[in-house]
Specification:
By secondary structure, the chain is α/β, with parallel strands linked by helices. It contains 20 helices and 24 strands. The longest helix has 20 residues. The structure holds 2-deoxy-2-amino glucitol-6-phosphate. The site of 2-deoxy-2-amino glucitol-6-phosphate has 15 residues, from α9.
């Protein structure tokens, strides 16, 4: 989703901004731009499409300035055109702004500004911001920025500059992540810590109700009454991700292949360090897992673990729906937010709502120091390292494993299973990484299946129990990066309607890792085959494999974790299908890695 970068210091800003934007590219965008202050005016360069176009266009100008802002835009209001790309300037050209989020009252503000003679160049909600700064400016940029921010409803992360006060960047945020970093003789602003250069920096998060003023001499924080405030730097993950595909063609493949090692590391995690009190762990009445997309699917796996192992009733909620159905939250409820980025706007909004209602909170996140990590009562890190491909792979399986371990921990603490039993399950869990290794070694087999399905228009994923949840994840992955319409169905539910879609040659991916459900799965496979479906079974079971048209043998494992192995194989299937279709597996169309708007 949109990304902000900004720099003020002694060096020329252009290459610093472009490098920052390069790193933010993985978040997803459809246009980009930079604005650099030069001799009392702004030099602006914007381009629709990929960053290469911006780089090319920016060569037509020298850009000697040392203070600037840049942006990658993921269109919400207005098409992804050059006019709509950020930065946006005020009518008189003296204010320049980049923005992430949505100004929900933009229409009303536009109307008001038009009445005062302002005209607009773009269709964006953002353009009202520099115009308001111009409108409010009476000799003090900071005051104009503050007044502007107070007018905005909705979510925002803002970086602004003015030709009236060269060398300064003004930053503010509400419900959208924004970080500032202070180094020697320079300051940076960015929506993601990875965009900061790998040098010694003090990093601060800009919170709602705060304003940051950056200059080469440092950063000043104020509240909305203009009073100075003191802030503590935060710890965030910063790794050089830019070109580190470790020899793989795509980050997605690299990240899939990293899974055995990540699962091995996680299998050693000591849940005893969980920062929730023992009292809460023992008294939890029920759990609400809130998450989006793949993280929601990990939540479904978590529900099965928490209920079957720890005996805790668990509800899994799509975060985007949570607040709109008056959820019942009572004392003793634990809300778990699951998120790779820790910055998903829907999840954050649902999470804050639950906090307001007094629920205890835990987050299962991948990105160190992210909003969900900072705001929760307890954090469990998935520790999968930076995930760059838009389609999540390693973070998803890590989420599932962390939720499994949490469930074992609760089960032990609540006396649902003996220490001996728990130990046995942990021993089995420790074998998961080597089994995942066997799955990734089957890449060539999986690639062959991808050749068969790459040209279909529709495909079904079916499974029962935990495999039904994995089917949902497999279908999402395939849709995301191959643009093939995929539908996931609980296999037993097919006959209640969807089976009418089966006809000669309909491809069906059947996932069967749960021994107790093999017989039932066989019947469901027979049902679709009888209607002409071509079945690809992903299973450790020889009999199911024989009944399918094509089988991928999965290693046999503990009933709780078999579907993790199936998920890894389905990730590879999506990857090879995308590659077979000549698509960019890392950056699928229309999608963003970190979805920071609701
Ligand atoms: C999965 O491949 C997705 N790209 C998407 O569904 C993602 O899982 C979802 O947007 C949630 O993101 P988060 O884990 O960062 O909160």
């Amino acid at each position: 989703m949109c990304g902000i970068v900004g720099y003020t210091g002694k060096k020329q800003a252009k290459s610093i901004l472009l490098s920052g934007l390069d790193i933010l590219e993985y978040r997803g965008y459809d246009s980009a731009g930079i604005c650099i202050e030069e001799n009392g005016a702004f030099a602006l360069c914007k381009a629709s499409g990929k960053l290469e176009r911006l780089r090319e266009k920016s060569q037509n100008h020298v850009f000697s300035g040392t203070c600037g802002i840049g942006h990658t835009r993921w269109a919400t209001h207005g098409a992804p055109t050059e006019e709509n790309a950020h930065p946006h300037l005020s009518s008189d050209g003296s204010f320049s702004v980049v923005h992430n989020g949505i100004v929900e009252n933009a229409e009303a503000l536009r109307a008001m500004l038009k009445e005062h003679g302002f005209s607009f160049r773009s269709d964006t909600d953002t353009e009202v911001v520099p115009q308001l700064m111009q409108y409010f400016y009476r000799g003090n940029v900071q005051e104009a920025f503050l007044k502007t921010v107070k007018m905005l409803s909705g979510s925002y992360a803002l970086g602004a500059m003015s030709t009236y006060e060269p060398g300064k960047i003004f930053a503010a945020a509400r419900e959208s992540p924004l970080l500032v970093a202070k180094g020697a003789d320079r300051c940076f602003v960015a929506s993601d810590a990875m965009a900061f250069p790998l040098e010694d920096l003090q990093i601060y998060s800009v919170e709602a109700g705060e304003l940051a003023v950056l200059s080469k001499n440092g950063v000043l924080f104020q509240n909305t009454d203009g009073e100075a405030i003191t802030k503590q730097p935060i710890q965030v993950e910063r790794e050089c991700i830019q070109h580190d595909k470790s020899g793989y063609d795509f980050f997605m493949l690299k990240e899939i292949m990293e899974q055995p090692a990540i699962l091995a590391k996680l299998a050693q995690t000591d849940m005893g360090k969980l920062s929730l009190s023992d009292e809460l762990v023992q008294s939890v009445r029920c759990v609400h897992i809130i998450a989006c997309g793949s993280a929601y699917h990990a939540g479904l796996a978590g529900k099965r673990f928490l209920e079957s192992l720890a005996g805790v009733p668990t509800f899994v909620e799509m975060a985007s729906e949570f607040r709109y159905r008056s959820p019942i939250l009572e004392k003793g409820d634990l809300v778990i937010a699951v998120s790779q980025s820790g910055e998903t706007a829907d999840t954050i909004a649902a999470f804050r709502y639950a906090k307001e209602k007094g629920a205890a909170t835990l987050s299962v996140v991948n990105v160190l120091g992210s909003t969900l990590a900072r705001e929760a009562d307890g954090v469990l890190y998935t520790d999968a390292g930076p995930e760059i491909a838009v389609a999540t792979t390693k973070a998803y399986t890590a989420q599932v494993l962390v939720l499994y371990q949490l469930s074992l921990h609760l089960a032990e603490k609540r006396g649902r299973i003996s220490l001996e039993e728990s130990q046995k399950l942990k021993e089995k869990m420790k074998k998961l990484p080597q089994k995942a290794e066997k799955v990734v070694k089957q890449a060539e087999e999986i690639r062959k299946i991808s050749e068969e399905i790459k040209n279909v228009n529709h495909i079904f994923f079916i499974g029962r129990g935990a495999d039904a949840d994995t089917a949902a994840e497999g279908a999402l992955k395939l849709k995301e990066i191959t643009y093939i319409h995929a539908e996931a169905y609980a296999a037993g539910e097919l006959k209640h309607g969807t089976i009418s879609l089966m006809e000669e040659g309909t491809p069906v991916i059947a996932i069967a890792t749960q021994k107790a459900l093999y017989d039932k799965m066989r019947s469901n496979i027979q049902e679709v085959k009888a209607r002409g479906a071509r079945v690809y079974a992903f299973t450790p079971d020889a009999q199911i494999a024989r009944e399918a048209d094509y089988a991928l043998y999965l290693p046999d494992t503990d009933e709780h974790l078999g579907s993790v192995l199936a998920a890894v194989s389905l990730q590879l299937l999506s990857y090879y299908t995308a590659i077979g279709k000549g698509l960019d597996a890392d950056k699928p169309r229309n999608l963003a890695k970190s979805v920071t708007v609701e």
